[in-house]
Amino acid sequence: MALSNGCACKIGPSILNADLSNLASECQRFMDCGSDYMHLDVMDGHFVPNLTLGHPVVKCLRPKLPGVFFEMHMMVADPEKWVEPMADAGGDMYSFHLEAAEDPGRCIRKIKEAGMKVGLAVNPPTSVQGVLPFMDMVDLVLIMTVNPGFGGQKFMGECLSKVQFLRDKYRSMDIEVDGGVGPSTIQQCAEAGANVIVSGSAVINSDNPRETISYMRHIVDEALQKASLER
Ligand code: DX5
Ligand code: ZN
After folding, report:
1. Cα 182 to averaged position of ligand 2 atoms, centre (Å)
2. What is the mean pLDDT of residues 27-32?
3. Which residues lie near ion ligand 2 (Cβ < 5 Å)?
4. Mind listing the pLDDT tens digit for each residue in 67-122?
5. Once rounded to an integer, what is the mean pLDDT over residues 151-172?
6. Is 46:76 a contact under the CB 8 Å cutoff?
7. Where are the domains of the chain?
8. I need a labelling partner for 211 at 20 to 30 A (CA). Which of 11, 71, 99, 204 fits?
9. Per DSSP, which regions of the chain are E strands?
10. What is the CA(72)–ligand 1 centre distance, in A?
């Protein structure tokens, strides 16, 4: 599975609020329910006020889930520091925050040299203009729709103008949204042009995760189809 194959819908559950004592089986459960990839949230207590997991956990997870695409959402200060350990642990995509990188271009090159795909993330207060110089170097842009640090926060719809702005300029770019995304907010995300969808608590707390994932996919597919007809 690759994330950057044009502009198809991809749904990746965030496991932040899952039962972390059973991480491998939780990931497997969501993959069996129709997910395309897993979104693994890495927090270091510096860039965000919370701690989650690091490369030693990813390394243990990798052999339990062969073939599952791992997007590492690196909510860390100094993102360059963990590129090699994450590649070695089996990360497939390394999504780092523009706000945290001393030299984003150098970080991107390092991620590619380590054999991973590159995601570039921006927080709600950060202008979308900041990602423009790097658009031809990255595989995906991640527009945060909450301030990162915790699952289950309220969706910030105002961030979608950034998605719309990028989608108008880059028709086939992978544009991901993360934070408060679920059945009640997916329509807005899809209409703005997001095609890569992170969903944490909405999927984890759903009585029927398969149905929740398939509903979100349906909404995104419909919007993508409409956009391609309008082109
Ligand atoms: C927020 C994380 C998100 C979050 C998503 O800091 O990056 O991935 O866990 O969870 P929900 O969908 O519950 O906001
Ligand atoms: Zn995330």
Report:
1. 14
2. 98
3. 41, 73, 178
4. 999 999 999 999 999 999 999 999 999 999 999 999 999 999 999 999 999 999 99
5. 97
6. yes
7. 10-230
8. 71
9. 10-13, 38-43, 70-75, 93-97, 117-122, 140-144, 174-178, 196-199
10. 13
Q: What integer is the mean pLDDT of 3-23? A: 87
Residue 119 Cβ inside 6 Å of ligand 1? The answer reads no
DSSP 155: P
Q: Whole-model pTM?
A: 0.97
From the CB of 197, is ligand 1 less than 6 Å away?
Answer: no
Average pLDDT over residues 178-204: 98
Please give the CATH superfamily to which domain 10-230 belongs.
Aldolase class I (3.20.20.70)
- Residues whose CB falls within 8 Å of the CB of residue 38, separated by 6 or more in sequence, listed in order: 12, 13, 15, 27, 30, 31, 65, 68, 69, 70, 71
Q: List residues with catalytic annotation.
A: 41, 178
